[in-house]
Design a protein that fits this description.
It is found in: Cytoplasm; Lysosome; Lysosome membrane; Nucleus. The protein is an alpha/beta fold. Helix content is 30%, strand content 24%.
């Protein structure tokens, strides 16, 4: 159950800007490498011709860009990222976990100056759906804010439809008060810089992130959701779903990356999100150990997969497979879980004992 993984592109670091690229990179930035679907520019995958949104990971050196990518999409332990070498070439990764999560991530080296005349930076931004700029919160971020301003203003002129996301990263070493103070300061400085150049219409979204907790997964979820055209429909369906059942909160998760594709309109708190991620990990780990080896595509997670966890606060968590890559994770009270649905009486013939596991009543009909 793996998605297409990283293709590392580029030659070894050289004195010229083009040393960061190999032939595949240059072709990707050419006009032929760009597709257009419904009038929206996008990246045309060389293998299947599909147009996928492109997410750019940018920031200064050692800000944590590669660590984020490895932890979110490669299940690398946060402690293992301490041994990652500094990125010296552009790395492209295809994420094709499901029909809803289909995009490319481009990880840019922090020392690269893609505004160098040798680069055609317009070709970089024209097919981009989101630009994530990572700022190290534990370092002096004056230079980072300057680079952020330059990057955002140049990118906006090329493609005003880009979503600009700022990850204030490595906040695990800060107190709660210090986190809020850092976020407020960075937010004010970045927006003041835009206002000074008459570009206050550019919207920047800010997230406090760390690879040592689930904040990085939640932040990436919010970024990816902006690239999903079906998001309003999915949210509406989830709202209808919970309003006609005893469910209090519902998520649609990509089980590979633990990015939630959509949720209902009620607020998301970190503890609830962490419980969902932990439940998915448990289900996948057990499936990998005890799942059938000869099932479809060799995936232990299939259409029969489901799990129920009773928490000690009378809350029940319910996970059910939607597709081989998507899962619905729901929260409901024990009394709602146990309640029989009187609107759908069971026929007499069906009341006979059978060797089946009855699904929870709130999911029937």
């Amino acid at each position: 159950m793996t998605s297409d993984r990283v293709s590392s592109l580029g030659a070894e670091e050289d004195d010229t800007a083009l040393a960061y690229y190999d032939d595949d990179d240059l072709e990707a930035f050419s006009v032929a490498g760009l597709g257009c679907e419904d009038g929206v520019p996008g990246f045309s995958d060389s293998l299947n011709g599909d147009v996928k949104p492109r997410i750019l990971l940018m920031g200064l050196r050692r800000s944590g860009k590669s660590s984020i990518q490895k932890v979110v999409f490669h299940k690398m332990s946060p402690n293992e990222t301490l041994f990652l070498e500094s990125t010296n070439k552009i790395c492209r990764e295809d994420v094709s976990s499901s029909s809803f999560v289909s995009f490319q991530i481009w990880d840019f080296p922090g020392q690269i100056d893609f505004f160098d005349p040798s680069f055609d930076y317009e070709m970089i931004f024209i097919g981009t759906g989101a630009l994530i700029f990572v700022i190290d919160s534990q370092d002096d971020y004056v230079e980072a804010l300057s680079r952020l301003h330059l990057t955002v203003t140049r990118a906006y002129k090329v493609n005003p439809d880009i979503h600009f996301e700022v990850f204030i990263h490595k906040v695990d070493g800060l107190s709660d008060d210090h986190k809020i103070e850092k976020q407020r300061d960075i937010h004010k400085r970045a927006n003041d810089d835009l206002a000074d150049t008459g570009l206050e219409r550019i919207h920047l979204s800010f997230y406090l992130t760390s690879i040592y907790d689930h904040s990085i997964f939640e932040a990436f979820s919010k970024v990816v959701q902006k690239l999903i055209p079906q998001l309003p429909t999915l949210e509406n369906l989830l709202n209808i779903f919970i309003s006609n059942s005893g469910i209090e909160k519902a998520f649609l998760f990509d089980v590979v990356s633990k990015i939630y594709i959509a949720t209902d309109s009620s607020p998301v708190d970190m503890q609830t999100y962490e419980l969902c991620c932990d439940m998915i990990d448990v289900v996948i780990d057990i499936s990998c150990i005890y799942g059938l080896e000869n099932n479809e595509a060799g995936l232990p997670y299939d259409k029969e997969s489901m799990a129920i966890i009773h928490l000690n606060n009378t809350t029940v968590m319910y996970l059910k497979e939607v597709t081989k890559f998507l899962a619905m994770v729901c929260f409901l009270r024990k009394e709602s879980f146990d309640r029989k649905d009187s609107r759908h009486p069971v026929p007499d013939a069906a009341k006979q004992p059978q060797n089946i596991i009855e699904p929870p009543p709130c999911f029937t009909g």
